[in-house]
Amino acid sequence: MTDDDQTAPGEHEPSFDDPAYDEIRGLLADARVSEPVPTDVAARLDATLAALKDQARTHQDRSSVVSLRRRTVGRVLAAAAAVVLIGAGGFSIVRNAGDGSSNADSAAAGSAADQQAQSDAGSGGAEKSAPNAHEPIVPGALDAIGQTSLRSAHFAQDAAATMRALSGTITLDQARTPTAASPSSSDAPVAPSVTPSDTTGTRGGYLANGSAALTAPPVTSTPGDFVSATKAATGCAGPGLPGAVTLPATLDGVPVALVFHPPTTTAQLVEAWSCDGTKLLASASVPH
Amino acid sequence: MTAAHEELDDTELLAAHRAGDPDAFGVLFTRHRDRLWAVALRTTGNPEDAADALQEAMISAFRRAVDFRGDALVTTWLHRIVVNASLDRLRRNKVRAAQPLPDDLEEYAGRGAVLATEDSDADPEARALQADRKGTVLAALDRLPPDQKAALVLVDMEGYPVEEVARMLDCPTGTVKSRCARGRARLAGLLRESGLTGTTGPPDASDPGPQQTTQQTTQQQKPEPRGGART
After folding, report:
1. CA distance B124 to chain A (A)
2. pLDDT at B178 > cutoff 90
3. For the residues B85-102, what does the mean pLDDT come to?
4. Is B182 an interface residue toward A (CB < 8 Å)?
5. Among A185, B67, B147, B219, whose CB has the most other CB atoms within 10 angstroms?
6. Nearest CB to A45 within list B58, B133, B148
7. Is residue B115 in a domain?
8. Is A5 within 8 Å of B133 when comparing Cβ atoms?
9. Residue A197 maps to a domain
């Protein structure tokens, strides 16, 4: 029901079957479209459909790859010995450079690496890996104008981290102040601040061993913290997909529209679109 | 796409798509896209927005097929997505609410929008008159609130039964009837202003419409519903 469905007091409410409007109905019927879709529109739809099919095929391929990786990821992660460094009011995650999406979720791996992390903490809690083997990432962090920053090379992890930040698993304040410690300056010890969530082996949705868990709660509405940024980014509306939540973001430093599709029972599709909504730049299916 | 796909009904095609058949959705959407195009075109009011809305709807349907629960016809589900995409676009562009009569009817005709049903054998004067009348109706239709416009497009223009339109618009049948009735009344007032009709209906409450011109009148039948027998 909308305002247009309401009848003003004293206003005549016309009847649906009123024969007085037969002429109007006839005029409307005469104005209907009987031509097929124009050829240029048909071609555009066909091209879009082909892209959708390619994308679906790619997702299927990725799922297969992840399944295979999960068989060995535990052993790989146990050896990674990455450490999460939590600074006051900020967070940073140190991981093996170049491991990309191999930071898949694995409870077994998390458990094994937890032990390693606790061992590290017991011996000082500082970064243990060679400085040059690590690089900082700040997934889901907000930049100066309140947009979340993602990287195309690690889009799945960054999207998942963003979703966790939006869900409140970690706070946006934490995300806004990305780090108190530069992982490259590991010779300057940083004492990790311990939060209650640390005891569960996860921190901000990331396994305590530093591996990026690829699971995240779905995003189904624009979080209040993002409303002002969303309004300010009116020039970056993206494709305007119905039912999706769109937030302003940057991908490799370039403004994009980050689109969260309606979640399924198992996952949520996240896409980075060009601001004008004409080009899909990156996508990932993030399991809950 | 194979000949076997053509043998499948809509529900089977959607199920095949959900099961991973890469061609099933294309067959399904192509099967209905002319009618979906017609709805999008008349709801948005212009070919550009209609094309965008149809594309958005296709993407959405492709990806949300898993959410289809089978409690409505597949075509109803598709129409609902198309109408929603069209209304979203229409509301975004509502600044065009007071759109004047299009002066590019020939261009519209080339895109299959306005003069699509013209009989090429009719004499030029009759065709011009018919095109003018259709353009006036469409311009008036564009001035209606989106919900009333969508109801009229689906019920009076496309000939879908009220019950099915209620499912498409996700509202009670009474609401569809009310939107249609009020939309017709407003349309009648607008067309009286333009001098197109003079015998239609009581004056619209929201539009006094004092003058009753008889410049042009038409007597036409209700449209036969598309796609087979409908009630």
Report:
1. 18
2. yes
3. 68
4. yes
5. B147
6. B58
7. yes
8. no
9. yes
Q: Is residue A22 part of a domain?
A: no
Whether A219 maps to a domain, the answer reads: yes
Q: Give tens-digit pLDDT for A66-121.
A: 444 444 444 434 333 333 333 333 332 323 333 333 332 332 233 333 333 333 33
Q: Does B27 touch chain A (CB under 8 A)?
A: no
- Whole-prediction pTM: 0.50
Domain with B121, as residue range(s), is 100-139
Partner-chain contact B159 A44, CB within 8 Å: no
pLDDT exceeds 80 at position B71? yes
* pLDDT: which is higher, A236 or B138: B138
Q: Report the run of H or E that residue A113 belongs to, with start and end.
A: helix A107-122
Predicted-complex ipTM score = 0.75
- Token pair in block for residue B106: 């020939």
Q: Going by C-beta distance under 8 Å and a sequence separation of 6 or more, which residues neighbour residue B23?
A: A53, B1, B2, B5
| Within-domain flag for B120 | yes
Q: Evaluate whether residue B198 is within a structural domain.
A: no
Q: Tell me the C-alpha to C-alpha distance, in Å, between residue B154 and each of B80, B129, B150.
A: 11, 25, 6
> Closest by alpha carbon to B185, among A44, A29, A202, A14?
A14
Residue B2 lies in a domain: no
Domain count, chain B: 1
Chain A contact set for B69 (CB, 8 A): none
Maximum pairwise Cα distance, chain B:
61
Count of the separate structural domains present in chain A: 1
Contacts of A193 (CB under 8 A, 6+ apart): A86, A87, A88
Instruction: Report yes or no: B87 at the A interface, CB cutoff 8 Å.
Output: no
Residue A114, domain extent:
72-287
Q: Chain A contacts of B117, Cβ < 8 Å? A: 30, 32, 34
What pLDDT sits at residue B86?
94
Comparing A146-150, A256-260, B217-221, which segment has the lowest mean pLDDT?
Answer: B217-221
CA distance A145 to chain B (A): 25
